[in-house]
Amino acid sequence: MNAPPPANLQRELRQRLAALPGHLEAGLVERGRVVRLALLAALAGEHTLLVGPPGTAKSELARRLHLAFAGASYFERLLTRFTVPEELFGPLSISALEQDRYERITTGFLPQATIAFIDEVFKANSAILNALLTLLNEREFDNGAGRERCPLVSVIGATNEVPADEVAEAFFDRFLMRLPVGPVSGPGFLGLLALDHAPPPGGARPLDEADLAALQAAAAAVRLPAQVAALLAELRALLAGEQAYVSDRRWVKVAWLLKVAAASEGRDSVAVWDLWLLPWCVAPGLERQADITAWLTARLGLEPGMAPPLLTRVVEAFEAQAALEQQAEDLDYDEDGRLRFSADLAASVNDAKGASQVARISYRRQRRYGEIHIHARVRQVDELVDRIAGYAEAIAASRAELAAYTAQAIWMDREFAAPADANLAATSQAIEALRVRALAAREAFLALPRREVDPGTVPEPVTVARA
């Protein structure tokens, strides 16, 4: 029986995982997100597709990734429409042919690689792409009459564009991460020119098989909370409504990626903030990724009832009810049940012909309400105010959670964290303004004129029209 691992293994492994991205991106400009996400995908046993023009360090990213794994064998190939299977899978074995066996010598080729970089992955013919499907998904290669197990950890694919055909779509689905890689920005360009040479990463101890096994075991024990599962289901429904198909297989892989991300940071549960990874997993291109990022920025950390538009409709309903009751009128009867006419009558006025005309006599007065009615309305507003206060506390807690998450996160993109926190802050300000309006409506109900004798009627609750 194997001895249990030392107690400090988990902490030591987390520290090394946290240090790896910085070492891998040393000497690169504006490639931090791509490095981190490609590494995370590899740790989850998934593949990454880099989409962008030539000369954007895609091959360099792949070469660096293999340095994160101890004893990793690296394979690299540029595909064209003239590429033949021997270039990827190895030459035919002459000795096997002499024995009537059709086998390849795979040593030094893709079936024996740990990390592989395949440039222009969609340029190859359909026969090669079909052969790659099994290798990427099952980590097995059909060699002659049998299948050989492949040590493949992750493939980095690169392409300028994704063609729209059935074979390419199936192959495209094998890459869990789809990362756009573009030219550096203006400020980044100045940093690029300042580089004499991108130094090879070093100083970080690579991960061995025991490290990967420990991470996989920890990830298997990570929980997927109901709140996170509900958000995944919400996004799935949203995409389905937009006719954006995401396979069930991909959703399962996404859940595993989230668990690996949580385990690598020492957590036993997936956090809602881990969902910032979703755009790169469920959207095929930059435009849709931006849309999903915007949705997540506006959605994470908030419950559905916290949405300012929904709360605004509720507050407006109380404001409208208060105004309606303030302006309502009743017929004015005296003690004998006869209409009481207003004693404050206007003087006679002359019409255009000079004839005398008496002003209309008023027999109405402002409606009065019983204490029970008024207290019922105030109680309804108080419930709304308490609910808004609860939302404010929940948002404050979400901001604190996001800050704590970001401080210890290995993978989180700060470009996502800042707008997400800003959205929470803006939402908090918006619902505070609604709380003030609700309190004003409460005062309006308290200011309603009272009846001397309370009829004891309880009003129907204020209702909110559906949007």
TrEMBL record:
InterPro entries: AAA+_ATPase (IPR003593), MoxR (IPR045427), P-loop_NTPase (IPR027417), RavA-like_AAA_lid (IPR041538), RavA_ATPases (IPR050513)
Domain AAA+ ATPase: from-to ranges: 44-185
Residues annotated as signal peptide: none
Domain of life: Bacteria
Pfam families: AAA_lid_8 (PF17868), bpMoxR (PF20030)
PANTHER family in UniProt: ATPASE RAVA (PTHR32204:SF0)
Protein name: AAA domain-containing protein
Native source organism of the sequence: Ramlibacter lithotrophicus
